[in-house]
Amino acid sequence: MNRINTPLCLFLALCTSVLIFGCNFNDKKDAEEADKNEMAGEATVKSASPERGKKNPGITDVVTTSMEFKTLDEVSSGWNTFRYKNQSNETHFLLVEKYPEGKGIENARKELAPPFQEGMNFLVEGKNEEAMKAFEKIPAWFSEVEMYGGTGLISPKSTAQSTIFMEPGTYILECYVKMPNGVFHSMEGMLKEIRVTKDSTDMPEPTADYRISISSEKGIIVPSNIKAGEHTFAVHFESQKKHENFNWHDVHLVWVDEGADIEKLNEWMNWANPTGLQTPSPEGFKFLGGSQEMAAGKTGYFKVNLRPGNYALVSEVPDPKSKNMLKTFKVQ
């Protein structure tokens, strides 16, 4: 359910929209080496969350133990790597959103959270008229929020790593996967404000081992002959569009168990379905990160350690398979 820049009236007319909500966290030092998952690959990093208020140019550790993002309050502009360690028992992701000037976490909590959750509750109940009335409370500045990427879906007790280019400004880190009762994780606390300063990280753009492209016309183009091991993937957004649920397309990497029902994954990726993006995630799949949505022409990077087996790249849009945005492949 990724947000896009579109007039508010479109949200109200079709009774669908995307969620931006909030949570605050205390920073915590974590010096342990990141878990290496036995089922499938994940980013191999060392997580050492810096003390509150201290810059760690270019590298930012983010830790979730329940329904929170524990991380820095301020980072420098330029290329930034987010190392997201999901220590919780839930599937999460880390979406990076740039807010318009003068807006921040309090605006998200007081102006966006209530109408979005209220509207979603009505949609789940099939009460479209009541949902439209709830969505009428969404502020117009919501359409000015910009998507800057972030890590894709990441399964419990796993780590994901994503590198993006950030301009100075106010950003929100968000996860809006749903609880079993349909409440968004962002309503439970998964939103964190960070300030990006004019100081530069001086980090160079990553060098990719493999390049993934995604476009509205061609869908996801998977690199050929992907080998096992630790690799950096570039995700280039050749074009971008809003889909039926008003999401922009993104790319999530998934381990696929032998015999897993790929149709269940295809259906689950649409947040607008009553059980879409809702806990529990479908059996037979392990989420390994990827790249959240970005504007056309932008490129994000993610690092992952792959073992031999079956994988999929999938986008968080309605029926991604029909859009060529659910592609399976094998790693040797």
SS summary, helix count: 4
First-to-last CA distance: 33 Å
Q: What letter string, H or E per element, gives the SSE order? A: HEEEHHEEEEEEEEHEEEE
What's the mean pLDDT score?
Answer: 85
CATH class of the domain at 210-331: Mainly Beta
| Level-2 CATH architecture of the domain at 210-331 | Sandwich
Instruction: Fill in the CATH topology of the domain at 210-331.
Output: Immunoglobulin-like
Q: What fraction of residues sit in β-strands? A: 25-35%
Q: Tell me the total number of β-strands.
A: 15
Keywords: Signal
Region (Disordered): 36-59
Signal peptide: 1-20
Provide a compact summary of the structure:
This protein is mostly beta strands and 332 residues long. It is 13% helix and 33% strand.
Describe how the helices and strands are arranged.
Blueprint lengths: L7 H7 L44 E6 L9 E13 L5 E7 L6 H20 L3 H8 L10 E9 L3 E9 L2 E6 L16 E10 L9 E6 L3 E3 L7 E9 L13 E6 L5 H7 L16 E7 L7 E8 L2 E6 L11 E6 L1
Parallel strand pairs: 1-2, 2-7, 8-10
Antiparallel strand pairs: 2-5, 3-4, 3-6, 5-13, 6-7, 8-9, 10-13, 11-12, 11-14, 14-15
Helix pairs in contact: 1-3, 2-3
Fold and architecture overview:
The chain has helices at 8-14, 105-124, 128-135, 262-268, and strands at 59-64, 74-86, 92-98, 146-154, 158-166, 169-174, 191-200, 210-215, 219-221, 229-237, 251-256, 285-291, 299-306, 309-314, 326-331. The chain is mainly β. It has a domain at 210-331: Immunoglobulin-like. The strands form two sheets. Strands 1, 2, 3, 4, 5, 6, 7, 8, 9, 10 and 13 form an eleven-stranded mixed beta sheet that branches. Strands 12-11-14-15 form a four-stranded antiparallel beta sheet, covered by helices on one side. Helix 1 (8-14) packs antiparallel against helix 3 (128-135) and helix 2 (105-124) packs antiparallel against helix 3 (128-135). It is globular. Mean pLDDT is 85; it is low at 1-55. Keywords: Signal. Residues 36-59 are annotated as: Disordered. Residues 1-20 form the signal peptide.
